[in-house]
Design brief:
Elements lengths: L1 E9 L3 H18 L3 E6 L4 H7 L7 H6 L3 E6 L7 H15 L4 E7 L15 E7 L3 E10 L7 E7 L2 H17 L3 E6 L7 H13 L6 E6 H10 L6 E4 L1 H15 L6 E5 L6 E5 L16 H13 L3 H15 L15 H18 L1
Parallel strand pairs: 1-2, 1-3, 3-12, 5-10, 8-9, 8-10
Antiparallel strand pairs: 4-5, 4-11, 6-7, 11-12
Helix pairs in contact: 1-9, 1-10, 1-11, 5-6, 7-8, 9-10, 10-11
Bound molecules: adenosine-5'-triphosphate.
Adenosine-5'-triphosphate binds next to loops.
Length: about 350
């Protein structure tokens, strides 16, 4: 089996974590009979400075010729964040109609979290990925008048809510059968009441899943106090974005949290660590590559190679038991390369025992 992968290392620590993760992903695929055919593209901030656009106009067509996309990070201090985020990652999500963003978070033996209730956490955030507060609708007026104003419009459609909800309920039925709808319909009485209604309709098709609406502020507290009770969290674009960073802290930090942007249709998925380009540590060789490795594992899961995804996750679990390889974000003195080498060694031990 041949897996055609488009790879966008991007900016900052993006190229560092991708360079560390790709050989491991390649080994895991090979262990399960698949070859990776990788096209690496230069999309990102440096291209934006050179050409005026972070990716070419036909980027979505290029991606569609592949089975999946592995993305590092985008963002550099000399380009406004919103230009690169909108010019690349949100643009790809919208153009490819990557309706759902999956953000699994689990705790790992041997990896400390500043949250004492974190051990035993295993949750999945399912985030609507194309609209909500990130629809891009709105504008600015009266720029030169001294009384400038901005309007940012949130869009919530039955269609988008329903497809995210179906995905989330399906995931819950394959996991521990519990789902929380993260909402704010007490204060935002148009969009989020529609969420409440659509999700209640979808829930009727999944009678085995126990579900409840939870206000986003209460969910933030619950995530810290009793995270092990959480299974699937169904979120709008904004709430999912914020809660995923909070959830990542349960796993040890942003360097530990992967994500998948997927479409219920046959479009190639886009897999990326949830962290950004981390300019404060870029170039030092100390970025934690685990989020990127886990994103690669999700890419293999979604490409019909879940056993290869499991091999990566098992190898990470083994490697992380040794605190001497932990990168500084986990409180250690290890390096990006050191983590990747340890994970690769654990993977190769699996190959030798087969
Ligand atoms: P974005 O808005 O794109 O998510 P950001 O600027 O808010 O990006 P990050 O770039 O993710 O945030 O960085 C936030 C903090 O997390 C920084 O201190 C950074 O060093 C740290 N961080 C992010 N990714 C990693 C990683 N892979 N390993 C170690 N630390 C990381």
């Amino acid at each position: 089996m041949q897996l055609r992968l488009a790879c966008i290392p991007g900016d900052g620590v993006g190229p560092e974590v991708i360079a560390a993760a790709l050989p491991v992903i390649r080994d895991a695929a090979a262990l399960h009979g698949a070859q990776l055919d990788v096209l690496e593209v230069d999309w990102g901030g440096e291209r934006h400075l050179r050409t005026g656009a972070p990716m070419p106009a036909d980027a979505a067509d290029i991606v569609r010729q592949h089975d999946a996309v592995l993305f590092g990070a985008v963002g550099r201090p000399d380009v406004p964040d919103h230009e690169l985020v909108w010019g690349l990652i949100i643009a790809l999500r919208q153009q490819l109609d990557l309706a759902v963003n999956l953000r699994p978070v689990r705790s790992w033996d041997g990896v400390p979290s500043v949250v004492t209730s974190a051990p035993g956490t295993d949750l999945l955030i399912v985030r609507e990925n194309t609209e909500g507060e990130y629809s891009g609708a709105g504008g600015r007026a009266h720029r030169a008048s001294g009384a400038e104003l901005a309007v940012e419009v949130a869009i919530h459609s039955r269609h988008a809510i329903e497809r995210a909800a179906r995905y989330a309920f399906d995931q819950a039925s394959r996991r521990r059968g519990r789902l929380a709808l993260v909402t704010k319909s007490n204060a935002m009485r148009h969009g989020y009441t529609l969420w409440d209604e659509v999700v209640a309709d979808v829930a009727e098709d999944f009678p085995a899943v126990e579900w409840q609406p939870v206000l986003v502020d209460a969910m933030a507290a619950r995530m810290v106090q009793r995270p092990t009770e959480l299974d699937v969290l169904l979120c709008s674009n904004l709430f999912g974005d914020i809660l995923a960073d909070l959830a990542a802290v349960l796993a040890g930090g942003l360097g530990m949290a992967p994500s998948a942007n997927v479409s219920p249709q046959a479009t190639p998925g886009l897999f990326e660590p949830i962290h950004g380009s981390a300019p404060d540590i870029a170039g030092q060789g100390i970025a934690n590559p685990v989020a990127c490795l886990l994103s690669g594992a999700m890419m293999l899961d979604h490409s019909g190679l879940p056993a290869a995804g499991d091999s990566i996750r098992d190898a990470i679990a083994t490697a992380l038991l040794d605190p001497s390889i932990h990168t500084p974000d986990l409180g250690g003195t290890g390096t990006t390369e050191g983590v990747a080498t340890a994970v690769r060694a654990a993977l190769n031990r699996e190959r030798n025992t087969r």
